[in-house]
Amino acid sequence: MQDAPGGVAHGPATAARVPGASLARSGALGQDGKVTPEPDSASVDATPSEQPGPPSSELREEYARLAEEVRAHRIAYYQDAAPTISDAEFDTLFRRLEELEALHPELVSNDSPTQEVGGEVSSAFTPVDHLARMYSLEDVFSLDELKVWLDRACAGVEQRNPGAAIEWLTELKIDGLAVNLLYRNGELVRAATRGDGVTGEDITHNVLTIASIPRHLAGSGHPEEVEIRGEVFFPTKEFAQLNERMVAAGKAPFANPRNAAAGSLRQKDPAMTAERPLDMYVHGIGARTGLAAETQSQTYDLLKEWGLPTSPYYRVLADQGEVIDFIEHYGEHRHDLLHEIDGIVVKVDSFALQRALGHTSRVPRWSVAYKYPPEEVNTRLLDILVNVGRTGRVTPFGLMEPVKVAGSTVGMATLHNQEVVKAKGVMIGDIVVLRKAGDVIPEIVGPVMALRDPDRVREFVMPTECPSCGTALQPAKEGDVDIRCPNARSCPSQLRERVFHLAGRGAFDIEALGWEAAIALTQPAEPEVPPITTEADIFDLTPEKLADVRIERDKKVKGVVTGRELVPYFYSKGTAKKPSEPSATTRKLFTELEKAKAQPLWRVLVALSIRHVGPTASRALATAFGSMERIRSSSEEELANVDGVGPTIAAALEEWFAEDWHREIVDRWAAAGVRMEDEVDESTPRTLEGLTVVVTGSLERFNRDEAKEAIITRGGKAAGSVSKNTSYVVAGENAGTKLEKAEVLGVPVLDEEGFIALLEHGPVPVAEVDGGAADGDTSEKSEDTEVAEELDRGAGADLDSKAGVRT
Ligand SMILES: [Zn+2]
């Protein structure tokens, strides 16, 4: 038997978060995971499609009818060997079922014919009839629908048992495989799959390998005969490990834990099943003889006493509000559980009331399944486009028919690089599985092979030239998977991304400069020469320079898109009476640009889009050097020595400042009035001018940042590592290797008192400070005696050996 359904493979997990990835038209994922529209690809528009809401009742009926029909034909074909329709007719029915599921994935139930592993009822298992039919449940897809159902159940009870109070048993709808266990006098005699609800497959040998299912029931008073229903599941935690093993063994991984459970349970060899960590929760009974229980919940207590695994998650609730709370709670925590769930089941707890309500031909009237919005949906992959990011990285992304998944509408998802596209096996035009679990970034999982139409699909080819500027693309260095547009300076896409970035909240924080404004500034439809061709221009903008800027937008007549039109972006349209003038947002843009000039140095550094230089490194650099000039004139070694900087960032800084056009950005920003150094308190004497100080270990009166701050405000450099250029090392408690290195290099070492004296008086007057650490403990003193020896060897010869200085 096949172990996994073909076609759907797992891609690499994505860690980045995308807030509201919900653009209906073409767009792209930035390197920071932000979703932004993508003008390079604006020629390819997604076909606007209807937003699929919950499926209509007609559609649900058609689906249920079709599923029944397909099941019946399968049984006729495989079990009775007496097919009533041709294979082609069967294929048509099956395909329609798949189409409905593709359109409305929330319809897919565990027992859908499409969900059976290998796509067929296997002849490897003996068919067995259930003693009592295993009913499907009625599905509801919204709280409104649930409310209608609950009210109807209440009305039904009121009609038959006036005055009876209903208690609701609510439990998790496990995304697993329904199994029916038959016990006679406490002995497990049979286990079967659900099948079509009447006939299932005998999987007793495989079920016996599941540790939590008892062969003999515990306790006593077992009924003569009882069918116990439950759900076999693959624990979420073990699922990832299983797939790793599958891939390592060269097999296709399972698409989800449910398929893994089904695949594991329907192994021909029970030894194979035994290797899988399957588990089960029981949640109901079918046929019974001699069972003493009045309610569903009492039955669970009984089942638990008998040693059967019952779910720890069910509750008996008195009112509808609590039921809705339960649904909302697990909606938020559905990934914190031992197993996957796809909804909540609500049952009338009392058996008497269950009997009073009865069944329709298909479903019980006393139980309903509320289904959460699907986290995995199918949609068509319309195209694969590429986005050129801020650093020139070219990233393919899928443009899809917008679809609702896990509560938000998704129209695109990153595909990372061409290797990922290849690994996923997706082709343009495929119906693809799109997944978005919780807050996670949407991911194209893979194609639905069964729905691939060879005439409608084509392979994605990674472009060899930049779609934005036409420059030949190349890897940054040999062997890199990622390819880049090397035209950093004038590639319009890269400039647009940098402008968008420099206005961001972590940089200059220019609120009126959003994504569309970045496009209007760098790639407007008119005029031919954009208002800015380098970010050096940004602070030299004037309202006059923006007067003629037009961008292309949807033209709408009474809310309906009728085409595209050019509209002024920064100015009002202008009428005969009222001439065109800067819009309110444009006026705000200039106020904000003015305000941005006073931002602290670290934000200016972030705004420069230097590789690897994010907010953390920028803060470290600003703290250590205090001004752009000092950063620019520092050697790579000095930069690398700063805590939180290191060699990679130092090299990136060196490389960046080596470019003329980069230095021009800094110079022109400075000329426009951007503050290039952090304000220093003028009242603080610059006692440490020209000195580099390393603080190590913990001090009593300063934390690490305060110590650095104290050094920098006095004109010194606060470095992170000791080198021969270090002027002093300040060693607190538990100073480690830095202190040792200082000793090796002969760098003077100060204790906290010495540090305070240095801050106050600078290097020379230290000699005049008396006392200092002299009141320290004996170890301190014994170290002081070493100072003399060190000084004899000439290290720190310009220093006195008095208190506060030790080496
Ligand atoms: Zn380019």
UniProtKB/TrEMBL annotation:
GO-annotated molecular function: DNA ligase (NAD+) activity; metal ion binding
CDD domains: BRCT_DNA_ligase_like, LIGANc
GO biological process, any: DNA repair
Keywords attached to this entry: DNA damage, DNA repair, DNA replication, Ligase, Magnesium, Manganese, Metal-binding, NAD, Zinc
Entry superkingdom: Bacteria
A Pfam family recorded for this sequence: DNA_ligase_aden
Disordered, as annotated region: 1-60, 766-807
Residue ranges of domain BRCT in the record: 683-762
Catalytic activity: NAD(+) + (deoxyribonucleotide)n-3'-hydroxyl + 5'-phospho-(deoxyribonucleotide)m = (deoxyribonucleotide)n+m + AMP + beta-nicotinamide D-nucleotide
Uppermost EC category: ligase
Cofactor(s) required, per the database record: Mg(2+); Mn(2+)
Compositionally skewed regions (Basic and acidic residues) per UniProt: 778-807
Record's keyword annotation contains Lyase: no
Cellular component, GO, one term: cytosol
EC number: 6.5.1.2
Record: residues binding Zn(2+): C466, C469, C485, C491
Catalytic residues (positions): K173
Similarity annotation: Belongs to the NAD-dependent DNA ligase family. LigA subfamily.
Function, as annotated: DNA ligase that catalyzes the formation of phosphodiester linkages between 5'-phosphoryl and 3'-hydroxyl groups in double-stranded DNA using NAD as a coenzyme and as the energy source for the reaction. It is essential for DNA replication and repair of damaged DNA.
Protein name (database record): DNA ligase
Organism expressing this protein natively: Arthrobacter cheniae
Gene name for this UniProt entry: ligA
